[in-house]
Amino acid sequence: MDLSLETLQLVWYTVVILSMFAYAALDGFDIGVGCLHLFARTDLERRIFLNAIGPIWDSNSLWVVITSGAMLAGFPIAFATLFSALYLPMLLLVFGYVLRAVAIEFRSKMESTTWRSTWDSIFALASYSLAFGFGLTLANLIKGLPINDEGVLIGDVTDLFPPYAILLGLFTTSLFILHGALFLNMKTEGELQRRIQSWLQNILLLFFFLWATITILTLIFEPGMAEIFRNNPSYLAVVFITPVSLILIPKLVQRNCEGRAFLSCFLIIGSLVLTYAAGTFPAVVKASNPAYSMTVTNSSASLLTLKILCITACMGIPLFILYAAYAYRVFKGKVELDTMSY
User: Which structural domain, as residue segments, surrounds residue 61?
Assistant: First the structure.
């Protein structure tokens, strides 16, 4: 079947959004574990945290490459605009990924307490920067980047850090911490698990407060995000997934349904990503002046390129998903330390 350019543009935009969801849902709990790393009391507990994500953190991180690559291939003009306008924040995120990987691998190379404490701090700091940077980027895409008709950033780089962006960065940080805590609850046992469950109470309250605050501020200052929901009230079901999941999570934790509680956070992330996509569509990179926005139609690759990309994705992504599913199956269960552990 010969698909039109418009259809392939929508298909590839969907691929980008699904990749964004996969990144937030999978690498998100890795980052959340890193944010909680310094809250562990002993070296043994920190080793448990690291080995909980040890077999899968590197493959999870590939989703940020897949998301960026999907945008570069399918919407090259939007990619060029986004990564040039957000050059400094993106550079900081790159350093965050590098330092996180180095910290995980270097930490256990020496028995020195100072050595391990240093890399523990770097690991946590890099994780916080990645969680915050994700929200900062989303905030600028929701508000619109201050760019001109050539996609060049106008004004000062400080314009990328308004209060709304900082608040959204704190919100995504709390989201990843919640996701990481639910993952650790699933991978630990005994006293450590009970302490993580006590953390969850405060984390849930913090996340709910930030979610409610950012929702209200978005409705007030970014009314365009709510337009599609006003026009299609049935879409509000997506928004209400978050509060319903927040009610379910503590009940599932109390009943020792650890896997279901963890998967409930996937629903929250899915709800938030769909809300973002619905509120910003058809913009791939929204500009503060709507006339300069990079949309699905004016920033996409050619018809032939999109056809090749869709064929490649149909072959490659299922293989990667099968590999990830196999890895999760092999390393399921509680963390057990041995001579090969971090």
Answer: 5-330
